[in-house]
Specification:
Elements (H helix, E strand, L loop, with lengths): L18 E3 L6 E5 L4 E5 L5 E6 L12 E6 L3 E8 L5 H5 L3 E4 L15 E9 L4 H5 L14
Parallel strand pairs: 2-7
Antiparallel strand pairs: 1-7, 2-3, 4-5, 5-6, 6-8
Amino acid sequence: MNPEQNSSPASEPPFDECVKIIRPRSAMIQFVGKRMTWGFAWSLLNYFVLKANPDCHDPKVDPVQELIFYFPAAKVTLLGWRLDSMLKHIATHSITRVWPSKKELPEQDMTMPWISEMFILPYDYDVLEEHTPADPPATSQKEQP
């Protein structure tokens, strides 16, 4: 058995790509991160939004586009360049895997999408809970007037 032919779903993505396309369509889309792979059924996609990245200050350095997928269980945000080239594949559900690129932008094919960052925020995740102290500090009698 050749181990190169049997790659697991969590195997390393190709070095020069950010998106894997299959024809005619995929049942699920996978978002491959450094430590986890998230999978969502295309049928559960509520909607997506492509817009300019509001945090972009220098288009040569900062990702200029933001693509957000809204699923019932999570919100997935991609930051990068040429993300609009993914729209036709989103419409046909032909994207099967997505991951951030390992290469620098100038080395990339200028016709392909380039994803610099990916954020997945489950809807049951409370961002404020992470920053709230477990036990509120008790006030001592000396501090009270």
